[in-house]
Amino acid sequence: MKTRITELLGIDTPIVCGGMMRVGTADLAAAASNAGALGVMTALTQPTLEGLEAEIARCQSLTDKPFAVNLTVGVVASEINYDDYVDVIVNSGVKIVETAGRSPEPFMERFKAAGIKVVHKCVAVRHALKAERIGVDVVSIDGFECAGHPGEQDVGGLVLFPAATQALKIPVLASGGIADGRGLAAALALGCEGINMGTRFLVTKEAPIHEGIKQKVVEMDENQTRLIFRSYRNTARVYRNSVADQVAEIEAAGGDFSEVHGLVSGANQEKAWSTGDIDAGMVTVGMCGGLINDIPSCKELVETIVSDAERIINERLASIAR
Amino acid sequence: MKTRITELLGIDTPIVCGGMMRVGTADLAAAASNAGALGVMTALTQPTLEGLEAEIARCQSLTDKPFAVNLTVGVVASEINYDDYVDVIVNSGVKIVETAGRSPEPFMERFKAAGIKVVHKCVAVRHALKAERIGVDVVSIDGFECAGHPGEQDVGGLVLFPAATQALKIPVLASGGIADGRGLAAALALGCEGINMGTRFLVTKEAPIHEGIKQKVVEMDENQTRLIFRSYRNTARVYRNSVADQVAEIEAAGGDFSEVHGLVSGANQEKAWSTGDIDAGMVTVGMCGGLINDIPSCKELVETIVSDAERIINERLASIAR
């Protein structure tokens, strides 16, 4: 399957593995890339610059295919020196970067000088247009259905994707709510040049999380997520577990972020991922978990999605539109 | 374009004009049906049973094509005797009914005895499965993006449509967030057999509302709607005007429905529709208004959507999937 995005990024299929905090290790990124998708390592999953350098080298040793490094610049203040992370990425020989959170404008000159292609993830057409103006190569637009941060405007992919593709000249990745070949075919129909999937790649053999969490996603339906942090203007879609319900209650009672901070700590999230206890912490998954019913390898997953999308296009749609 | 739904309902295209209160007159329904879509008259737009009888007869005089009558059974108590409306519909010779709101179970026997095909509109897979069990012929499933009442689960069409089509044996209409050929092609890719569009048919030459409102939809973007009535468990998506903002403020302050009742009265809604004053009352439109840029006739609209969808399928998608 060829699109403007497969050509631009040098990948075999128009499928990108979403950059996932704590999950986007070299192992998952390399598995996704070896399967013909674009694997994405998350820079901040590594606690130190040296760790990131080593993890990128490890990913390079695991695959000869292109992969990307995600750099999410938080919207809340932090002590992270992003410039140092950019230096490590630029010096590593990585050829594709996925940025998210704040605008990548401060780093664009260095990325471009290094010949790096930039995929910027954002949640609104206005931000996508700005990204295009500052020279990013691809926009990954995240609809309301996505896991993690959908923004505050709540526009579903069905409307957001065509709104973005008609506004932009650069190619667009559809992100959020997509887990299979039906979603890929729909995204292409809406004008996108590929798809970005997080939750779906989370439920693969290679994803470095406990089997118990994968099983919970297989069992969930489309109503098993909820939005939290809306009162902090930093809305997040997460699995509807006891932690999410407690956070929602605290927010409803007017509690500020300090009151939920402990509940949603990275340590608790890590505990859920690593022990499989779905109630140990906040678990970031999207509503397309309701469409996921198996735990394939990345290779099986990518092959199935592409062949399903091709069959939908060449048989079902062609017979309807003939 | 042929699908299970065009065959079942005897229509030329897999496009249904959404049943819209105050807008679904014989004029719009007949125009949509004459254009090859399924026009839908709304029963409760007529204040009396005699009025409905006359309006159905008028629609029959305006078109030889199939059209449907929508019967929305309110979730809030009312003085309407729905059985009487069912009698009028059954005796009118109408061959298709669209039900919405509560389950059509109490009326199914009479509809079936009269040879009427029933399309039931609902917002959750669970309700769709129940509708299938009680014998409805088609489910029209309304995603989060829709105008009016999306329910309380907030599942976008991108996830809800495939979840519904994989759960049901009867054919499914995709509703909410669709306004063009891209949306039709995407809905078909997601397993649906057609689309239901309200906002898009509202912005046609034949829709019996003031030109000023149509123009406002042409000008709006995808962020120009908001949800109200969530605190009353009767969430509605409406145009984000001063009335919607006032209602939202009252709800945020804990005000009960009696405090917003006057603002959202039918008389005020009617005033907005008829005078074109966008702030005169609650204006029910969906976020796909952001994808609407013209005011075609129903015939032009249906032709454009079908030819766009066919071109997307036969050219764009076929070249990607070859």
Topology, element by element:
The structure is a homodimer of 322-residue chains.
Chain A: H1 4-9, E1 15-17, H2 26-34, E2 39-42, H3 49-62, E3 67-73, H4 82-92, E4 96-101, H5 105-113, E5 117-122, H6 125-133, E6 138-142, H7 157-167, E7 172-175, H8 181-189, E8 194-197, H9 199-202, H10 211-219, E9 225-228, E10 236-239, H11 242-252, H12 257-260, H13 266-275, H14 298-321
Parallel strand pairs in A: 1-8, 2-3, 3-4, 4-5, 5-6, 6-7, 7-8
Antiparallel strand pairs in A: 9-10
Question: How would you explain this protein's 3D organization?
Answer:
The structure is a homodimer. With about 325 residues, the first copy, chain A, is of the alpha/beta class. Chain A has two domains: about 5-210 and about 295-320, TIM Barrel, CATH 3.20.20; about 210-290, no CATH class. Helix content of chain A is about 45%, strand content about 15%. Chain A is built from 14 helices and ten strands. Chain A has helices at about 5-10, 25-35, 50-60, 80-90, 105-115, 125-135, 155-165, 180-190, 200, 210-220, 240-250, 255-260, 265-275, 300-320; strands spanning about 15, 40, 65-75, 95-100, 115-120, 140, 170-175, 195, 225-230, 235-240. In chain A, strands 1-8-7-6-5-4-3-2 form an eight-stranded parallel β-sheet. A two-stranded antiparallel ribbon of chain A has the order 9-10. In chain A, a hairpin with a 7-residue loop joins strand 9 (about 225-230) and strand 10. In chain A, helix 8 crosses helix 14 (about 300-320). Chain A is globular. Chain A starts with a helix and ends with a helix. The model of chain A has no long low-confidence stretch (mean pLDDT about 95). Chains A and B meet through helix 7, helix 8 and helix 14 of A and helix 7, helix 8 and helix 14 of B.
